[in-house]
Design a protein that fits this description.
The protein has eleven helices and eight strands. The chain is an alpha+beta fold and 255 residues long. A hairpin with a 4-residue loop joins strand 4 and strand 5. Helix 8 packs across helix 9. 36% of the residues are buried.
Length: 255
């Protein structure tokens, strides 16, 4: 992320770890790396859902753009999307196609109205979420909280925490949670967007990003990799660049 234009608002929510905003005064290319999260993103005239990534991708950002988004916690995407999160793996789709055209259009119109971007007639969208005011961060957070219904799968939430332990094994986590490895695979895939093995890899990658600067071999072991070579292979796949380059420019984000 461009530290000069990217900011996060950490929030207390069972569904979202943060809202974030990015402003791009000039055209730029953004490297997006896996974080086990799904984001609902508003970029002016468009509302999109960015699914869970399994490898790095580059996103072209237009100049003079303001982006506001809600980042869902790992494991809650299935409850908010109301469909298996795996259907969005490595994709960014129009929110109307994912969440329903009526829901997506209503939220987009509410955001545009709050921003003063256009007039909406009395017979347009429903009322703005209570307490959200004109803040797009609050409007988007309120929208996903209303949509989530019964909330995320508690077993998946426990699995995410267990798989975030260094050297966690899927079979061991399944046994601890009292389910078969196949059941854990299905429920994690539906809620996160990919299975527990991939989730453990991404969570380890996130632990690496959060560590203070140190020699690469120490970072590898502290994050939970077998050795530096293992870390190099994983970071190269997930970030698309070498560990040295990635860790030099890293900006850990909330998840």
């Amino acid at each position: 992320m461009d530290a000069g234009s990217y900011t996060e608002r950490l929030i207390s929510s069972a569904l979202a770890c943060c809202t974030w905003e990015q402003r791009t005064p000039v055209a730029q290319e953004q490297r997006v790396v896996p974080d086990a999260c799904v984001d609902l993103i508003w970029s002016g005239e468009r509302l999109t859902v960015a699914g869970p990534d399994t490898c790095a991708r580059l996103v072209a950002l237009a100049p003079n753009t303001r982006i506001v988004a809600v980042r869902l916690r790992p494991g809650v995407a299935g409850a908010v999307l109301r469909l298996p999160a795996s259907e969005l793996q490595d994709m960014a789709l129009d929110a109307g196609d994912v969440l329903g055209r009526d829901w997506g259009d209503a939220l987009l119109d509410t955001l545009l109205r709050a921003a003063g971007a256009r007039e909406v007639g009395a017979d347009g969208v429903g009322p703005r979420p209570t307490g959200a005011g004109n803040d797009p961060h609050a409007i988007m957070l309120a929208a996903i909280e209303r949509r989530a219904g019964s909330g995320p799968d508690p077993l998946v939430r426990a699995a995410v925490a267990a798989l975030d332990r260094p050297h966690a094994r899927v079979a061991t986590v399944a046994a601890e949670l009292g389910v078969s490895a196949r059941q854990l695979q299905r429920r994690v895939t539906d809620a996160v967007g990919y299975g527990p093995k991939m989730l453990a890899r991404v969570l380890r990658f996130r632990r690496l990003q959060a560590l203070p600067a140190a020699p690469l071999v120490e970072l590898a072991l502290d994050a939970g990799y077998a050795d530096q070579a293992h870390m190099t292979a994983e970071v190269t796949h997930l970030a698309g660049i070498s560990p040295v380059r990635f860790l030099k420019d890293r900006t850990p984000t909330a998840a």
